[in-house]
Amino acid sequence: MMRAVYRPGDSALHRMPAGTKLLSLAVLAIWISTGGWPAAVLGGAIVGFGWVLARLSVGDAVAALRGLVLLAAIIFIAQAFLTSPTFAALIVTKLAILVLAATVVSMTTKVADMLGVLERVLAPLKLIGASPEQASFLIVLAIRFMPAIARIAGEVREAQRARGLERQPFAAAVPIMIRTLREADAVSEALAARGWSPR
Amino acid sequence: MTGADDLKRLVRVPAFAGVVAVLGLLPPIPVPLIPVQISAQTLGVMLAGLLLGARGGAMALFVFLALVALGFPLLAGGRGGLGAFAGPGAGFFIAWPLAACVTGFLAHRIWARYTAWRGAICAIVGGIGAMYLVGIPWMAAVAHLSLSQAALGSAAFLPGDIAKAILAGVVAGLVRRGYPAIQP
C-alpha cells in the first residue's frame, strides 16, 4: 500500500546523486523565495527544464499543484487587494515554482537514496549521543507498522458497522489505539527475544 | 526503568507515526457551517503527545515528517514528498513535533490526576497553540501577509481543531483505562 511519489526512470536527473539534487534544490529555493521577477522567471525556466529532462508530463505538474490551488487563490486575492495584482502574481508564481522544484526532486529520487542523505545529515547527532542508525530503524519500523494499523482500523470499523456504531467517533478511535499499542508492544517483545536493545 | 520498557517506549514511536499516517488516509470530515474540511491527522498528533509524552510524541512526529520528506504521500489528501514542504500551509504540519512535545509535556504533569477535560486542555495548548504559533508566522512569511491577516485566515480551522482536542482528551483517557501499560 505504501507507494512513494518516486517515478522510476533513467534520466540525467534520476542518475544525479540524491545529495547533489537536494543541495541544488536548497540553493534554488532560497534564490527564488528571496528574489523578484528575474529569479522567478529564470528559476521557473530551470525547473521547467528539469521537469522535461525527468520526462514528467503536464498532467504531473497539474497533479503536483492541485494541493496548492485553494490556498494560492486565497493568497492571490488577499495580496491583489492589499498590495497589487502584480505582486500577488509574483508570490503565487514563486510558490508554484517552489512546489514544482521540490516535486521534481522527490519524483526522481528513490526513498532509499533519500534515506541515505538523511542518515548523512543526521550523522553529527552522534556527537550528542543520539544515533542516526536508530533514526533509520524507526523510519523502517513505521513503514512496517502502516499496513498493520490500516488493517486494524479496517477491522475495527467493520466490527462497529456490524453493531451500528459507525456514527460514534470514540467507538472506533479507542479500540484502534489500544490494538495498535498491543501490536507495537508485541513487536518490542519479539525484538527483545532476538536480543535487540535500543542503542 | 528496565531495558524492556525503554524498548517498548521506542517501538511505540514508529507505531504512532503510523497512526498519524493512517488517519491521513481517512476521508476528511466536512464541518457544518464553516467552509473547511477537517482531517483526522491532528487528532493523531494530540494523541501522540497525550499517550507517549513529550519525547516520544515529538519523535513520533519527526518520524512521520521524515516519511513525508522521503517521498511518501502521507499528508491528508495524499500529499507528500518535498513539494508538500514548499506550500504556504507547511508550517502547520512542520509544527507537529513541537505540538506533540508541548502536549506531552503538559500531559505528563497531570498524568496522576488525568481527566478528559484536563487532557483536552493539554491538547488545546500544545496541539493547537504550538501548531498555530509556527503555522501562522510561516504562512505570513511565505505569502507576505501580516501576522494578523494570516491568523484571520487560520481562524476557520479553530472550531474543528478544538473539537479534535476534546476528542483527543476523551480518547486518551479511555485508552489509558483500557491499556494501563501506557505512560507518557
Characterize the structure shown.
The complex is a heterodimer of chains A (199) and B (184). By secondary structure, chain A is an all-alpha fold. Chain A folds into two domains: 12-120, no CATH class; 131-193, no CATH class. Chain A has nine helices and no strands. In chain A, α2 runs antiparallel to α6, α7 (111-122) packs across α8 (132-162) and α8 packs across α9. The two termini of chain A are 30 Å apart. The mean pLDDT of chain A is 89. Chain B is mostly helical and 184 residues long. Chain B has a single domain, classed as Orthogonal Bundle (Arp2/3 complex 21 kDa subunit ARPC3), CATH 1.10.1760.20. In chain B, strands 1-2 form a two-stranded antiparallel sheet. The radius of gyration of chain B is 16 Å and the shape is globular. The interface between A and B is large, with 71 and 58 residues.
Largest sheet of chain A: none
- Compute the number of strand runs of chain B: 2
Second rung of CATH, namely the architecture of chain B: Orthogonal Bundle
* Helical percentage of chain B: over 70%
- Largest protein interface? A-B, 71 and 58 residues
Shape estimate of chain B: globular
Figure out the total of helices of chain B. Answer: 7
Under CATH at level 1, the class of chain B stands as Mainly Alpha
* Total DSSP E strands of chain A: 0
What percentage of amino acids of chain A are in beta strands? under 5%
Shape descriptor of chain A reads extended
Q: Biggest β-sheet of chain B: count, sense, barrel?
A: 2 strands, antiparallel
**Neighbour order of strands in the largest sheet of chain B:** 1-2
Instruction: Please report the number of helical segments of chain A.
Output: 9
Measure the end-to-end span of chain A.
Answer: 30 Å
Strand content of chain B: under 5%
Q: How many whole angstroms does the radius of gyration of chain B measure?
A: 16 Å
What is the CATH T-level topology of chain B? Arp2/3 complex 21 kDa subunit ARPC3
- Secondary-structure element string of chain A: HHHHHHHHH
Mean pLDDT of chain B, to the nearest integer, reads: 88
